[in-house]
Amino acid sequence: MATITEGFLDAPIFSVIGETAAEIGVRAFVIGGYVRDCFLYGKGSGDIDVVVEGSGIELAEAVARKLKVRKIAVYRNFGTAMFHRDGLEIEFVGARKESYDRTSRKPIVEDGTIEEDQLRRDFTINAMAFSLQKEDFGALVDPFGGIRDLAEGIIRTPLDPDVTYSDDPLRMLRAVRFACRLSTPDHPFNIVPESIESMKRNTGRLAILSKERIVEELSKILLTSRPSKGFFLLEETGLLKEILPDLVKLKGVETVDGKGHKENFSHTLQVVDNVAALEEAAIERGERAEKNVWLRWAALLHDIGKPASKRFAPGTGWTFHGHEVIGGRMVPEIFRKMKMPSNEKMKYVQKLVELHLRPIALVDGEVTDSAVRRLIFDAGDDLEDLMLLCNADITSKNPAKVERIKANFRLVSEKIVQVEAKDAIRNFKNPISGDYIMEVYGLSPCNTIGLIKERVKDAILDGEIPNEFEAADALMREVAAGYGLTPVK
Predict the structure, then answer these.
(1) What are phi and psi of 74, to 5 degrees?
(2) What is the pLDDT of residues 228-245, one digit of tens each?
(3) What's the predicted TM-score (pTM) here?
(4) Which domains, ranges and CATH numbers included, belong to the chain?
């Protein structure tokens, strides 16, 4: 991998920062992800971190004045300042050295040099810097061999990993995330063995992290192109058992009378990867606007109820009857423990977990209009996501079997389009409301009203009557008569 920096600092902002730093008597460097991405992708990201041997705020304010930038965000408690210019987000911070109390990941910070600042960075590939000094403008400052580690696809800490991970255990999750995010089929990234062993020793340090920060890292892993790499690493290091023990329970195969079941942990991660691939292909085709992290959470949790539902039936083998129902009940508790949102996002994940077998059940049986109507009704606006998840859930070591199921699945998808176009069930609203029943029969609120409404709804979904008011009203009157009700008007 080349170490030539020519062209990486061509944007005028870099010269302005260097000149301004010289004017106020400090040294400045571009550091971190921008430098890493220059070598990985041939260009830096839109986020630029500038570390200053001195006051980052003072340099930021001086540069902003020179560029006539009106809006600058200053965070004096953290010693940082940030502004936007020409589509770039530039953040300034003073070089620092850190020490830690074992009860917190918040460091004790002191002013430091560029070398001390690089030493506190999480990984060698994120510790590289470009000099902005006139005498060596653009020179790579790389004391830990980050450029070599980039070329070799290595995630390694500048310090002893036990120190790095114990001081800030979030870095263990970041190591996993970078191994996922930076990997490509042609250039995989791997965490060095000594770091893996250190992560195994430091799993207990996760206790000082907030659940929110852990979930943020997990979500970033899920949004990569191959999330399975990350979750296999989390399981290997013991971190996953600390974070999501219910997921680890999926691991392993039990055999009775020579019959084993699918290895559900690997299957789950294959489904997550399949969702990522299908979603990214849909984005490429313009059918989706962006990745949906909650769809990927649903894929991760779709079989979470299998350990509790697993049974061995002599002559039949292993069964997981009702695992989708058990899994749906588990989702709110998992979200609560991890301090994830309990709003519509949780309900969306819960719905997909509960419904993920329904389209597959249609594949294996007769695809009736009635069954399709009920699927459309129950899935509502989340139907496309449910179908994508179910498509991703078609896995087998037998390619012929997969292709046969997928062919049937495509027939189900076509049937859904036909039924929806004909019957308008997606956002179905019962033509008969409770208020209307009370008005017609002079009733106060009671259970009978709900029973009448449910009978009308079922009749529409089962195709007994069209989704029209006149037909629904006629059936309402017939059902109500069976309950001994007489219209008052």
Answers:
(1) -115, 130
(2) 999 999 999 999 999 999
(3) 0.86
(4) 12-152 (3.30.460.10), 153-243 (1.10.110.30), 434-482 (no CATH)
